[in-house]
Amino acid sequence: MAASADLALLDALAALDRTLRRLAAPAMIIGGIAVIARGVPRQTVDIDATIWGEAIAIDHLVAELARDGIVPRMVDAGEFARRHQVLLLRHEPTGTPLEISLAWLPFEREALTRASEVDFGGVAIRVAAVEDLVIYKAVAWRDRDRADIERLLVRHGTGIDLTRVRGVIGEFASALDDPDRLDEFDALVQRSSGAIE
């Protein structure tokens, strides 16, 4: 990222952090920012976060975000969020895209309690724990997510409870009717094990 992009991202992150602190609902950063915050260098131009769905009304969340310059990227964003459990947003001053997913699952509730505060370029943010970040990435399972998992395993492998991670991924794989996902995850673990820092 160029320096101007870095500053834009930090401005947007600080704005989101202000909103989330004001709301005081369980929330954390996930996605690329969280991967970077957990010690894995990579590029990103957007911000992904999650908030406990029972703790916030969507319309109230949208209104509070707007106070910090974070606005919907689409008409009827609230209705879209009610159907798809994600708010598609933009930090208006910088144009930075943001997504806030609404968390409802027991795993997500536990992950929110395990998050910790990290300094990210001078902005203090709550970030998903490494194990939970690996699980989020294993659920999304795009090429970028698999690359992130491998790099997180290399960076933190000896400190990750792989038994817990595999158990949760197995539950998601079953729910998604994707029996090969766990084997593919195991292959990533195997490949990364020789390069663990």
Notes on the structure:
- The protein folds into 2 domains: 1-128, Beta Polymerase, domain 2 (2-Layer Sandwich), CATH 3.30.460.40; 129-197.
- The mean pLDDT is 93.
- Helix 6 packs parallel to helix 8 (162-175) and helix 7 crosses helix 9 (180-193).
- The strands form 2 sheets. It has a 5-stranded mixed sheet.
- The protein is of the alpha+beta class and 197 residues long.
- The chain contains 9 helices and 7 strands; from the N terminus they run H-E-H-E-H-E-H-E-E-H-E-E-H-H-H-H.
- Helix content is 55%, strand content 19%.
Short structural summary:
The protein has 197 residues and is an alpha+beta fold. It is built from nine helices and seven strands, in the order H-E-H-E-H-E-H-E-E-H-E-E-H-H-H-H.
What order do the helices and strands come in, and which of them pair?
Elements: H1 3-23, E1 27-30, H2 31-37, E2 47-52, H3 58-67, E3 70-72, H4 77-84, E4 86-91, E5 96-103, H5 106-114, E6 116-120, E7 123-127, H6 130-140, H7 143-156, H8 162-175, H9 180-193
Parallel strand pairs: 2-5
Antiparallel strand pairs: 1-2, 3-4, 4-5, 6-7
Helix pairs in contact: 1-3, 6-7, 6-8, 7-9, 8-9
